[in-house]
Amino acid sequence: MYQKKWGVMLLVLALVVVLALTGCQPAAEPEPGEHEVETKETDVVVIGGGGAGLAAAITAADNGAEVILLEKMPRLGGNTLISGCAYNAVDPERQSKQGIEDSIDLHFQHTYEGGDKKGDPELIRILVENALDGLHWLESLGCEFKDEVYTVLGALWPRSHTNVKPLGTGYIEALENGANERGVEIYLDTKAEELLQDEDGRVTGVKAVDADGNEIIFTARKGVVLATGGFAANVELRSQYDSRLTAEIPTTNHPGATGDGIVMAEKVGAEFVGMEYIQLLPTGDPETGSLAGWLAPGVDQMIYVNKEGKRFVAEDERRDVMTNALFEQTDALMYVVSDANSVWEVTSFGETEEQLVEMGKVLKADTLEELAEKINVPADALVETVARYNEAVENDHDPDFGKKLLGHKIETPPFYASPRVPTVHHTMGGVKIDTLARVISKDGNPIPGLYAAGEVTGGIHGTNRLGGNAIADIIVFGRIAGESAANSK
Ligand code: ADP
């Protein structure tokens, strides 16, 4: 297909050159009506084939709708596919086996307060009350979770579930199969460019373009679901809201996270919330910005040290607090230091310890002194830092930074260190939705026929999304959006 496209492009280029040289004018545009624009009609059109879009498509189909899903990239998955895959849900069955006390109210409180009370309490309630049901729904589609829960970075509590498969592959495989089994028609390489409205302002379809540049009009008898993800990979847009986020700062996101849904929704009068709240993580790979490339133990099993070999923040803090603290350190660079007891055999990114060490992403040593030499920090400082941290673990009290999740001492060789930098991760802001995932317009009323779910929406996570809440969000609200769209009058 690409060869064909290049061939056509070369031919056109050659023609233009010949015409320019001979002073001829190109042939006139075809007469209107000569070029038929392809049209397709269905009940529900979903824009975006990440977790939110697939959950919406499946649920719309389960509610009796005929569904078309558009994905601009050559494959499904979006950020969901490359996520660390943590899913927060209060899950008494799993948590009780580990002696973890938890409640829906506590999850609510962590989410609301962790976002500086800027999230919409009604939407947060829906998220925390339906997270476990969403997890069971994923299981019913064949997605498998490990039995143990943990505290993913920035989650504030051990209620993060992890998939048996690496990254988000377990989610996307299960969702893709679910969509295919229900006859959802999936158009890859098809980019939605504009939402179409009738004279009453109802959203009735989508104008899209395929990989060859052909326009296709998708008409939706019932509704359109916007599930295009966030805008962390759009440097121009993100730096409008946070001037630190220049092209120098890497991102964890896939290249398609360019905020197309924001642009399309703006044109039909949607209201936006929290656009200025853009989340960075302190754990980006210095070369790629990716979350891969380190051993990623639970937050209770590691410490962060700066280039001077000193801790500088509680490692179980909110993501924004940790990243802001990292920006204050020399070269905004830190090392995640852990030991033999902290290490997972395989990370959620599917990497093994040996691979990471071999690639030079993780430094490994038998003593802390040797580790210090490998990462070029003062050995006495690192030894002193670890000793002081181990004292905090022993006393279950961290007088320096107030870390609460003090798992175990860092004392068992081999020791590990991975360099990490700030990286743009999640855009908390986006289109405003109500509890039925209807998109709200600037005049405060729902825009008929338009629904949204996932990272394209705003108002749930406030200023700071908790680690592990995004996947729960996209599944819970993706399902709601699909149901609402299918049942729309
Ligand atoms: P979420 O977590 O909210 O589901 P993801 O990033 O996982 O977000 O998925 C969003 C998907 O939407 C991505 O696969 C992305 O390529 C796709 N997408 C973004 N913009 C468009 C567009 N204009 N047309 C079609 N698909 C789009």
Short summary:
The protein is built from 14 helices and 17 strands.
Structure, described:
With 489 residues, the protein is α+β, with helices and mostly antiparallel strands. Helices cover 33% and strands 19% of the residues. Strands 1, 2, 5, 6, 7, 8, 16 and 17 form an eight-stranded mixed beta sheet that branches. Strands 10, 11, 12, 13 and 14 form a five-stranded antiparallel beta sheet that branches. Strands 3-4 form a two-stranded antiparallel ribbon. The relative contact order is 0.18. Residues 1-30 have low confidence and may be disordered.
Q: Characteristics of this structure?
A:
FAD/NAD(P)-binding domain; 8-stranded mixed β-sheet; alpha+beta; binds adenosine-5'-diphosphate; 33% helix; Flavocytochrome C3, Chain A, domain 1; 17 strands; 5-stranded antiparallel β-sheet; 2 domains; elongated; 489 residues; disordered N terminus
